[in-house]
Amino acid sequence: MLHIVNKSPGERSTLASCLAHARPGHSVLLIEDAVYAATKGHAAAGAVGRAIGAGVKLFVLRPDLEARARAGAVAEGIVQVDYRGFVDLVTQNPRVQSWL
Amino acid sequence: MGTIDAGGKTYEVDEEGYLVNLADWNEELAGEIAKAEKIEMSDNHWEVVNFLREYYNEYQIAPAVRVLTKAIGKKLGPEKGSNQYLYELFPYGPAKQACKIAGLPKPTGCV
Amino acid sequence: MEATGTVKKFLFVNRKAPYGSVYALEGLEVVLISAAFDQDVGLAFLDDGVYQLAKGQNTKAIEAKNFSPTYRALEGYDIEKLYVERESLEARGLTEDDLLVDVTVLDAAGMAALMDEMDVMISF
User: Fold this and answer.
1) B60 with C65: Cβ contact below 8 A
2) DSSP codes, C34-94
């Protein structure tokens, strides 16, 4: 399953909720304001790191990082993807859950 | 937006003839809406209209036809809980016509 | 409406409080419409979404439509699977007794497992 999150973890609990329901082997893609959660030193880094440790695969959309000047600050273990990679993730995962 | 007259008063209806303000409803007005729909109200018609108003009062929605049919059958007897019975009373669809006469909004998911 | 094709398991995931935004009401309307398509439909309530089911809502003074009674109509639409997350209730000082419909309470792990069984999830 692919989970997609687009809200900043500084503003909403969406990411925390998503990570609490993502199971080992699932993928989580961070887009739009959620990309901040992928950056080093962010308060959400602990929760993201624990999810990766538990076997959840983390992806972040690079165009959204670039727009926000955060492309150089992505934490280890998180894979950057472009729009093509976004499409690949959607086609590889038969089920997609968009967390609003 | 249009209007409909009943009992010497004028009430607002939308472009499809549904009453704009639920609270405006009264039996005389219902009779006028029925006339505009070319329906002559019998006791059986009133039974369905009153049922709809009770349903709306309880659940705050107009039921889908399938749900209405089932609920009517449960409350008024299985012979009345059929599409055929309800369409005989309201040829253009119980949801559409009966809801309109009952002063309710168009049912959610009404297709 | 006749079902075409296979029946899929749908879960509508409600995570927003009522009235502050339009999500809860819009979600409920989509659920009611979905009932016409003869699919296997369930509803999940987590985070602030649990507030949608709180007993005793009174919207008179804010002049908004109180749509909470509509959750009790779902049974008549053959939508009987309502799941609520225990942690979300606890974090808000609520218990099952504060809810206006019968629900199945699941912990977060149970909710995650439920989601994993679904074919389609739609969030509101």
Assistant:
1) yes
2) HGGGT-EEEEEE-GGGGGGGBTT---TTTT----GGGGGGGGGGT--EEEEEHHHHHHTT-
Of C33, C70, C73, Cβ closest to residue B109: C33
- Domain interval for residue A58: 2-99
Phi, psi at residue A75, to the nearest 5°? -70, 160
- Domain tally, chain A: 1
Per-residue pLDDT of chain C (124 residues; tens, 9 = 90+): 455 678 999 999 999 999 999 999 999 999 999 988 999 999 999 999 999 999 999 999 998 999 999 999 999 999 999 999 999 999 999 999 999 999 999 999 999 999 999 999 999 9
List the chains bordering chain C where 3 or more Cβ pairs fall under 8 Å.
A, B
- B74 in contact with C at a CB cutoff of 8 Å? no
Tally the domains of chain C: 1
CATH of the domain at C93: 3.40.1260.10
**C74 falls within a domain:** yes
Top-tier CATH class for B2-101? mainly alpha
Q: What is the ipTM of this complex?
A: 0.88
